[in-house]
Amino acid sequence: MRIGLIGTGRIGAFHAGVLARHPEVEALVLADADPERAAGVAGALGAEAAPTVDALFAHALDAVVIASATSAHAELIARAAGAGLPAFCEKPIALDVPRTLAALGAVAAAGTELQLGFMRRFDAGYAAAREALAAGRLGRLHTVRAATSDPAPPPAAYLPLSGGLFRDCLVHDFDIVRWVTGREVVEVYATGSDAGPAMFREAGDVDTAAALLTLDDGTLVTATATRCNGAGYDVRMELAGERAQLAVGLDDRTPLESVEPQGPPPPGKPWPGFLERFGPAYEAELDAFVHLVRGERANPCDGGEALAALRIAEACELSRRERRPVRMAEIPSA
Q1: Are the beta carbons of 8 and 32 closer than 8 angstroms?
Q2: Same-domain pairing of 51 and 133
Q3: Residue 268: helix, strand or coil by DSSP?
């Protein structure tokens, strides 16, 4: 199998390494807006570097992996579809619903596959929680608590391009809540704080946010996120039912210290970032994509899933701005 990968920044370089090691990938072609960066990553992996994206598409490829800047995702998805190529794309498709729908329309018209990079679906803990809930171990689910905490803010230049904390960060929580519970969000009520570094206020963003989601069966979900969690990278989910409670992401590396006399000891080595925490999940999702391209499995996370998560993020941003509950019916879906 010959795969073209576009974007060789941090996550793109990681994906390139995974694909270069994959037994089903015979050839890997890399391209980046910075040709020298692509050449450097390709040289370290024994892959080929294309000088431009046009040159990459000129190769006889079997599939495309898109790990470029978010602003280029929708165009590259449509281009891959137009070339008849299945594509894997890091989230999001786009930062708004209209461009997301346009890209999905191109995929549908071409009849190609598009898999989105929501890696938490491939994490062992989240998968176990989903299975336990489906098996009835928790009884009736009444409360879900989801949290994503970054150890340090991103560069200031990134913030105006990110789409904001709900679309860039909490969108992962919105996706995994839907996947684990199998339910849909019907209403959101969200708020945020920009009391941290001034760059968030200057970008019109917030550094900390909280959302209350109501699911279609009445389950209540709290989802929180912050860019300023100096203790370490912390991503967790708690599911509380009438029979039992489960926690995802609670282990000896969770950057959480108990002050109880009989509490567990402090974590010895907190997670430093998302690649370390979710490395195996990133590898698993690309393996799934390879088998999708080979026709050996169904699409585990298609474009419609990305649209659903984005719509929740859009509803939360609207709620934050207007300081009111927002019904999901207010957010366009087609």
Answers
A1: yes
A2: no
A3: coil
